[in-house]
Design brief:
Shape: globular
Structural class: alpha/beta
Strand order of the largest sheet: 10-16-15-14-11-13
Number of strands: 26
Helix content: 25-40%
Length: 778
Amino acid sequence: MKYRTLIESMTVEEKASLMSGANFWNTKAIERLNIPSIMLTDGPHGLRKQGGKADHLGLNKSLPATCFPTAATLANSWDRQLIYDVGQTIGKEAASEKVSVLLGPGLNIKRNPLCGRNFEYFSEDPYLTGELASEMVKGIQANGISACPKHFAVNSQEHMRMTIDEVVDERSLRELYLEGFRRVVEKSAPRTIMTSYNKVNGTFANENTHLLQDILYGEWGFSGVTVTDWGGNNDRVAGLKAGNQLEMPSTNGITDQEIVQAVRSNELAEAVLDEAVDRLLELVFATQLHDRDTQRIDYDVHHDKAVEAAKRSIVLLKNEDNILPLRDKKVAIIGDFAKNPRYQGAGSSLINPAKLSNSCDVLSQSGLPIVGYAQGFKRMGGSNDRLLREAVTLAEKADTVLLFLGLDEGSEAEGVDRAHLGLRENQLDLLRSLTKVNSNIVVILAGGGAIEMPFVHDVKAIVHTYLSGQGSAEALTSVLLGEYNPSGKLSETFPIAYNDVSSAPYYPGKEATAEHIEGIFIGYRYFDTAEKPVLFPFGYGLSYTTFAYTDLTAEQHQASFTITNTGTVAGEEVAQLYIQKLDSSIFRAKRELKGFEKVFLEPGESKRVTIELTERDYSYYNPTTHDWAVEPGAYDIQIGSSIQSIHLHEQITLEGDSVSSEHTKDQFPHYFSGHVHEVTESEYKRLLGYAPPSPYWDPKQDLGLNDTIAQARYKNGLGKTIYHVVLFFKKFFDAVNKPLLANNVYFVLNMPFRQIDRFTGGKISRKQILKVLDWINR
């Protein structure tokens, strides 16, 4: 241990005190030993340091900071250097505010497009996720502070996130849900990692020995600190044994005393506590900023960086008749989002932007001949004939309509999943009305992920800004005018309809468990293998120029090819490398992303691109040997501009390893074909290796500390009353257009009883909670 002498001078009580927070955002100090407190605070796409009363869900305002595009947006840039620069800039602002640990990036895999927090996550693909998240971690930590990748692991839904058991087979766990974290740990050495609220295969993530000891600290060699998500501790002593050092936020000493009692009763070896303290001290002393001079922040310069990040992340999805870039035509601006931008998510990532403009104002100042602005629709839904008529009248006066549509603040947020993939009906009604009077409609979408588009054939162009941060208006204007040639590519698949999604029949887990019956077949791995049509494929995005691919040479450890800009304007192309195993004897995705490069080219310019490959890029996780293996035989190295646009390919042959006999066609026919909607109960049981637990609560069972207020509706009059009172307030806040408050009430509805005393700092005691549970269970 590095700090053995210091630890030996501590009492057991002092050691235990370091294992939880002093308050909502700070660790405890021990002044007599000169151990300082450090601050941890939110920051996936900007610094959220609250200056007043603290909370985890974005209720109380934070200090001004630069609001960058969310991770889902940045991922569409496919630009490693850009994301490093964003991380470095956010980290610089954090260091200037004496924040030692920035809680981000989020890199959970997008199992399903309804997940309410997908705007915080990079991709459905673990390779792309790991590559981009690694760059953000490096950028943040270049400032001498710690990044904190989250949420480890399998945090795939927001519904019941504090109690749900994510049931997932070992191969899918390794190949999908852990792979991004592995890349981050091994490539960028984060000093902290945050565990998730949920259970993974029956055990809470923060006390899951397989995840923490066997994999994170064991196989991957992680040397930092694991911290719970805020309120994410279940059994404090079990968590400490598994390798979870820091619990946040403060519990006013409640769980510290549990640790002390466990040491004194020999339930917990003091050596385990000492090792946890040593890891925490390493973090504290490496990142404490109180005695360091920090740079002054130029928020105007940082705003320009936010604009640049947004420009490179915007995706042009359709451009019929080359209606974009806009030319000297009369333009109508329609849609509430043009005046009141939707530029970030909600919850713990809610940033107070240092600067913010809107597209209506920026476009009006651009020199375009603007004929006017119309709101068009009520933001939170509901019909309004006056707004619709005003928009239609304005559209009749214009050559081109810029129609701003999207997901409002209540549609996607931390703590609650999306209800569907569609836009609100009043927005679709408006679009249908506008198409009757103007055929030149450019739809500009805002939102954190995939959206169903029944209107795709009715409009000339579609631009998806995702959630582009405080620079979204300037970035969008630059793209619309052709000052910047769009280069974004989708980091997730857009289905035609939600029911096409592989996990649609199984998502979300509504009560006790969330069964990952689809296995490895999520996102493009499903659509491509099952040959299911999509709206827009993974890796897709248009440009104002064209590119040609030629001269591929491929071998086991690298592939080289030439890209030429064959158009008339400069632009950037994202070249993507996929690997397909030919004639595989085990079930696997048809092809997988294993490399990419973003290349800038002037008109007529060519560049030679080389992508390096490793043995892991050809490997699958063998559940029989519990290790990675390369199947022998032929592999097709494919180069494309999306997963559906493969321009070059070349075969190589590998000797490989012996093949598992467990994942073959006769045992897993529906997994082998990719038709995972048809998986049988026995097939899924074979995949898991055991019979899965019941996905439902037993309403006859007494409620305990790990049960939720939502379950109280199955009990007596008191339980039903508590449930319906909370539900009433959620519906009330929805009705008065307070989506953030409504979502936070929903968060309370799904909170386990064990968290009440800890979230209230003991103001509501464990004894009182047990008494209420006793009354409910009568």
